[in-house]
Structures are given as structure tokens and as C-alpha cells.
Amino acid sequence: MRADRLAAVLGALAVGAAVVLGVWATGGPMQGRAERRDEVRFQDLLSLKEQVDCLADAANRTLPARLEETDLCLIADRYEDPFTGEPYVYKRVSATGFRLCAEFEAPEMTRFIHGTFDAKAGCLSFDLKYRY
Amino acid sequence: MRRADQLAEFVRDALNAGRNREEIGAALADAGWSGTEIATALAAYAESDFSPPVPRPRPYVSAREAFLYGLMFLALAMSAWHLSSLSMQLIDRWLPEVGETTNIFDLRRMRWSTASLIVFFPLFFALNLRATRELRRDPGKRRSTVRKWFGYVTLFLAAIGLLGDLIYVIYAFLNGDLTLRFGLKALVVAAIGGIVFLYFSAEIREDADAS
């Protein structure tokens, strides 16, 4: 085989393999859609955190017992996952600490956005003592 | 003296000496010039009895060739770059360093490289096939200035890539970074540079044979 033909065949094989592996490793378009949905969930949790902060400020720095719609603070866009309809979970873990959780589809991919994200549980942790 | 000048000067002298076009064409063909080159050289002078021979205006470098070869080499460069980038990200993903995780940006970079490969590699392949066919039909095209320049620039970049890779291997060895992950990455760059080098050295050898 001539050298340039050999090079063309090797090149085509390498590119073919890389494209297949690339699509496989990144999970294809369905995985991409799941990541987009997770981004929305993540942004929702961050806006819920602002909502909790606002409610706590209004109640003399005390955490609210439940997350619910109120006229006092109108920060959160929604209280449930817009794709599944499941409510987001708000848990008090101490007098000032709380967690906000959602059902993420590819949680390991959202880790970079926030330092306190627990990928396994799908939860973000906050504390009123610290301003983020 | 440049080859084209040499040919033009010969045709002018021959016409001046009163030779007819058939004789000049036959003499040039005997000397190994291709049909297209002879026709171009003869067409450089108007067919009139005026003496000395009257030159016709002629294009210097083909804009069409510059477009086709420019696109072809850009497609090759993009394919080589994204193939190496995607391979490195795959290696990073499958052989993570301690404490390292894949994040969404890595995935998006991989998707970008995959998309670029899907566009640029078939483009390079198609343009290259077209160029090869044209060359087979008209071997005189091997003497195209545009083609030669693009070819040598690509060879130069491939050589730089390979030399840089070699330096990095030695540096990493001295630095104690010679891990499996690093070895695979160096191998990827060497393989891609090697394929490009193999391809163009064969092409350029044929060009040299043709000139």
C-alpha cells in the first residue's frame, strides 16, 4: 500500500474511533438534555436558598419550619421540580444550617458550580452564619 | 531562474527564431513538460505575425486552487487538532489523577471536538479525493505553487508537533511525571503527527518526481 493511502486509512480509522468513543463517553444527546434539566434544578435550589435567607431575615435570623409560598419573600421561581413535579426538599440540620435537595439525573456533572454540593444525595448545604 | 520564467523565455526565443508552435510544443514535450504546461506557455504569447512575440496577460496564482487547498489544509489542521484534543480528554476521563473528576465543561469540550471532527474530517477526505483525481488527470497541477506551499507548511507544523512532543517526553521524564496517562498522551500526538507526516512526505516526494 502506498504511504499516503496507508496514512489516509489510519487517519480515517482514528477519527472514526474517536468520534464513536467521544459520543459514548459524553452520553449522547439524551445525556445532554439531562444535564440541561439538572442546571435548571440547580438554579432553582440556589433561588430557594435566597428565599430561605429572606424568610430568616424577616424572622430575626431564624430558619423557617417549611418552605412555602408567601408574600413576605417573592424570590423563588418554583418549589417543585418543573420536569417531574416532585417538590424540592428543604431540611433544617441545625439552628442555622439547612439543606436543599433535588432529584438530579447526572449529579456528578454539576459539582463544579458550588462547593457545598453533595452529588450523592443531590443536596446543597448552607448555614445562616455564613454569607455565600 | 524560476522554472516558469525559463519556459516563457524559451518559448519567446523560439518564436523569435521563427519556429512554429507545433515544433516548439514537440520539443517541450520531449523535454518532459506536461501538455497543460506547454499549452499554457504557448498561450502566453498571442498568435500573430508581429515580431517580437506579443505576450498575453495571464493569471499568476490560481485563486480557485488557493480556495480549495486552503480549505483542505484547514480541514486537515482542524481534524488533527480536535482528534488530539478529544483523545486527551478521553484519556483524562478514563485515567483520572487522584482527586480529579470530570465536570460538565469537560463533557462540552468533548462534544465540541466530536462535532468538529464530524464536520472537518469528511470535508478533508472529500477535498483530498478531488485533488488526487485532478492530479491524476493533469499531472502538471503537481507544480502548483499554492499546493506546494500549503503542503510544506503542513509538513512543517507536523514536524514542530513531533519535535515538541519529543521535548515534552524528555522534560516529563526528568520531572518524574512519566505516568501511563502521560505516556498515552505523548503517543497520541506522535501518532497524529506521524500520520500527517507520512501522508505529506509521500505527496511531496511525488511532487518532486513530477518537477
Tell me about this structure:
The complex is a heterodimer of chains A (132) and B (211). Chain A is α+β, with helices and mostly antiparallel strands and 132 residues long. In chain A, 42% of the residues lie in helices and 12% in strands. Chain A contains 2 helices and 4 strands, in the order H-H-E-E-E-E. Chain A has helices at residues 3-26, 28-58; strands spanning 89-92, 97-101, 117-118, 123-127. In chain A, strands 1-2-4-3 form a 4-stranded antiparallel sheet, with helices on one face. In chain A, strand 3 (117-118) and strand 4 (123-127) form a beta hairpin. The termini of chain A are far apart. The mean pLDDT of chain A is 85. Chain B is mainly α. Chain B folds into 2 domains: 3-43, no CATH class; 63-210, no CATH class. Chain B has helices at 3-16, 21-30, 35-43, 63-94, 104-137, 145-175, 180-210. The model of chain B has no long low-confidence stretch (mean pLDDT 84). Chain A binds chain B through residues 2-4, 6-8, 10-12, 14-15, 18-19, 21-23, 25-27, 31-32, 35, 108-112, and chain B through 79, 83, 86-87, 90, 93, 101-105, 107, 110-111, 113-114, 117-118, 121, 125, 128, 191-192, 195-196, 198-199, 201-203.
Q: Secondary structure elements and their pairing?
A:
The complex is a heterodimer of chains A (132) and B (211).
Chain A: H1 3-26, H2 28-58, E1 89-92, E2 97-101, E3 117-118, E4 123-127
Antiparallel strand pairs in A: 1-2, 2-4, 3-4
Chain B: H1 3-16, H2 21-30, H3 35-43, H4 63-94, H5 104-137, H6 145-175, H7 180-210
Helix pairs in contact in B: 2-3, 4-5, 4-6, 4-7, 6-7
List keywords for this structure.
heterodimer, A: 132 residues, alpha+beta, 4-stranded antiparallel sheet, elongated, B: 211 residues, mainly alpha, 2 domains, 76% helix
